[in-house]
Amino acid sequence: MAHDTLDIATIGHNGGPPVETWASALGRLDDETLLQRDQLAAILGISARTLTRMAFDPGGIPSLKFGKRRLFRVGSFKEWLRRREERPGRRRAA
What we know:
Layout: H1 19-28, E1 34-36, H2 37-44, H3 48-56, E2 64-66, E3 69-73, H4 74-84
Helix pairs in contact: 2-3
């Protein structure tokens, strides 16, 4: 289907799903819901390997490990995302 105008809501980050897709998907889930690595990666439109790297980075996505499984609590992910939000700051005087 051809589009005459570009709808910003249909653009995903790096080829991922539109922001509204994963934001609304996470919004429908209870904060205590535990997602498997593949589930959260699919919602975010990233690879499971990328998600794992993000979890192991200092200050990375909080996760729980049960045996060989890594689980992500929806509420913890949302809080992590809020903390990472950048706000314009004042420049320091030179």
